[in-house]
Structure formats: C-alpha cells, structure tokens
Design brief:
about 170 residues; alpha/beta; Nucleotidyltransferase, domain 5; 6-stranded mixed β-sheet; 5 helices
C-alpha cells in the first residue's frame, strides 16, 4: 500500500541518482513501493534531477508554497533553507503537507500533483494549507550527500529514530 509521503530538499542541480540514494537511505525498513508521493517547495518545479527521479519511478510530485511550508513548525530549523528560501525547513513540512493532502483531505485544499517530466513541468500550488493534524513524521530529516529527506504518513507507524552523520549537512540551494 502506498502510504508514504517523501519530503525532499536538495541543492540546485542535484542529480536524480543522488536524490534516489538519499531516499533509499531514509527509507530504512520501509519498502520503496510504499511511496505514494514526493513533495518539495514550489521553487523546485523545474529541478531536473527531482523531476527525473519522479518520472523514473512514476511518482507524483506535489509542490507547496513558502507560505504553506512556513505554516508548519520545524523542530530543527535549517539555516540554508532560511537564508535561501525564507522557510525553516523543506523536507519535513513538505512530507507532512503531502501526507495530509493525500489522506483524503478536501481536494480544494490539496495541491495538484505534478507528473514529473524532465522536458517540462507545470506546477499548480493551492493557496490553502492541508490540515496536518493526522500526519506524522515517520523519519525526521535525514541528510545524504546534500539531499534532505523526511518521511510522513497518516496511516503508518513511526520507525526508530534515524541519525545521519553526513558532513555535507546542507538543506537546500
């Protein structure tokens, strides 16, 4: 069952292989085929590596605005995300927002999925933030080679704390 929402933050021009490695590392005991959606900030709408990763695995990409992301509390704020994007984090809020949007919340409040295409992407971002009350982080922000990943769901149960000692601890840009 596809119950996982994967929030991703990445530097500009991060290749699909790097994003995939980060996602696989964050999944831990979860299976790749449990992924229902990928989510990120709307400024990543044309990020080739992210689009290629989604297309390669036929995963929808949900994009959220800075305003939607800023409405979600982040326990461990990211200085690079704050500096470059004006938000405290990307992967955790996006994972929570996508999980809530996917869980059957009002379709008027959910962003439309972007079917990833390396050639072109058009993103529609809703102006209303999905209610994340029932969404929970299963895997908090993990960092793998400059790509941040968090996993959320409204149905799955949390796994053990993920730790990552990657020296390239940078959230975005």
């Amino acid at each position: 069952m596809k119950t996982l929402a994967i929030g991703i933050g990445c530097r500009l021009h991060s290749p699909a292989e790097q994003i995939e490695a980060a996602v696989r590392a964050a999944l831990g005991s979860h299976a790749f085929d449990e992924i229902g959606t990928i989510a990120s900030i709307d400024t990543k709408a044309h990020e080739a590596g992210l689009l290629e990763f989604c297309a390669r695995h036929a995963l929808p990409l949900k994009l959220f605005s800075r305003e939607q992301i800023a409405a979600i509390a982040v326990d461990d704020p990211s200085s690079p995300a704050r500096e470059h994007l004006g938000v405290d984090g990307v992967c955790e809020p996006c994972a929570l927002l996508a999980a809530a949007a996917t869980a059957g919340s009002d379709t008027a409040s959910a962003p439309r999925a972007v079917h990833a295409s390396v050639a072109s992407a058009t993103a529609a971002v809703a102006s209303i933030t999905p209610n994340t009350r029932n969404a929970q982080l299963l895997v908090r922000k993990t960092i793998h080679n400059g790509v941040t990943v968090a996993i959320a769901s409204t149905t799955a149960h949390p796994v053990g704390e993920q730790t990552n000692n990657d020296p390239q601890e940078q959230d975005l840009p």
